[in-house]
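Hello again, I could really use a second opinion on something today. I owe you a coffee for this, so here goes:
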Amino acid sequence: MSVELIKGSHFRNLALNRPPDTYGRLSLLNSVGQEISRCKTSVRRGQPNPVYKETFVFQVALFQLSDVTLLVSIYNRRSMKRKEMVGWIALGQNSSGEEEQLHWQDMKESRGQQVCRWHVLLEA
């Protein structure tokens, strides 16, 4: 399964009056919520509308797609290795909403074609 995190929009740094330093973290979870694999983007510094355009490949068999969840989280990296979650979504078995569930269903039925959608992050 290939996943591309393309861009974010309207990220704010609530603590400071400047755009945040953000990165994305993608975690693939099994049916009981255990992490199978994880990866993250590089940090985009001082960008309220960061462009990531990074692709990640997860080894998932076609028959396993109904049993896994992809958790996508965006973090604001603060000073001294501290981080705070900006927001998150989940797609797959435990989708965080109807749009995410539809995206996952369309991806499963797409026969290898890319399915691209915007998602609104849930607050951490």
Remarks:
- The helical segments are 98-109.
- The longest strand covers residues 83-92.
- The chain has one helix and seven strands.
